[in-house]
């Protein structure tokens, strides 16, 4: 029974994501999802209380796919700039089928209480999966990143990735080539900037930046 329930849940999710790609987020209703999946509307709501929760499912699946293609792209790439390009480009690759409703996703995710807010508790699993991709990119780079940066850098890169994703959402150029140029230009700049952390005089600046980052992450309670 549990296996059948999970199969039905996955069917509803797969159908929803298919409709998101084909007709867009706004036009996809829970009734349309249920009809396409061959289940009752009540059954669809049993597994997903709203379309917001289905977007959360999309978020998780996209991160899982990103992890697979990023790992392949990182093979035999050692320099940090190249590894950042690989991770960022593959991130855009896996999101591309959903570009047409990206702005709808942003409108849904921006609310602090939204279940699909990428910074919210409900998104912990997907966020951790994405952070792991950036952690792999950093830890596998050669020459290695300054030791003082290794713990915090994956999260800082993930935050930058959120900015790239927002730029991509509103990028109307063909194939979102402007976003691709942004990635190709920014990755080497980031890598060169981080290499300065090993210079004694400049190192203090990085210490101050990391101190600020850690302070704003602290729970004010």
UniProtKB/TrEMBL annotation:
Keywords in alphabetical order: DNA-binding
Residue span, HTH tetR-type domain: 6-66
Transmembrane segments: none
Highest taxon listed in the record's lineage: Bacteria
DNA-binding region: 29-48
Pfam family, one: TetR_C_23
Gene3D superfamilies: Tetracycline Repressor, domain 2
DNA-binding found in the keyword field: yes
Keyword Secreted attached: no
Protein name as catalogued: AcrR family transcriptional regulator
Species whose genome carries this gene: Paenarthrobacter histidinolovorans
């Amino acid at each position: 029974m549990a296996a059948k329930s999970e199969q039905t849940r996955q069917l509803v999710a797969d159908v929803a994501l298919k409709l998101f790609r084909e007709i867009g987020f706004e036009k996809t209703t829970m009734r349309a999802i249920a009809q396409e999946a061959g289940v009752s509307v009540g059954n669809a709501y049993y597994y997903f209380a709203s379309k917001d929760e289905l977007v959360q499912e999309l978020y998780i699946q996209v991160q899982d796919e990103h992890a697979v293609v990023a790992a392949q792209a990182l093979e035999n790439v050692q320099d940090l700039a190249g590894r950042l390009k690989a991770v960022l480009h593959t991130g855009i690759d896996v999101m591309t089928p959903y570009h047409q409703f990206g702005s709808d996703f942003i409108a849904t995710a921006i609310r602090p209480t939204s279940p699909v807010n990428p910074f919210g508790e409900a998104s912990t699993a997907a966020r951790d999966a994405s952070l792991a991709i950036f952690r792999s990119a950093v830890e596998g780079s050669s020459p290695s990143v300054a030791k003082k940066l290794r713990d915090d850098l994956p999260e800082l890169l993930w935050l930058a990735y959120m900015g790239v994703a927002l730029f991509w959402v509103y990028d109307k150029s063909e194939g979102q080539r402007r976003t691709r140029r942004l990635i190709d230009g920014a990755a080497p700049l980031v890598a060169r900037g981080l290499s300065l952390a090993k210079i004694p005089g400049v190192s203090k600046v990085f210490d101050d930046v990391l101190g600020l980052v850690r302070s704003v992450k602290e729970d004010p309670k």
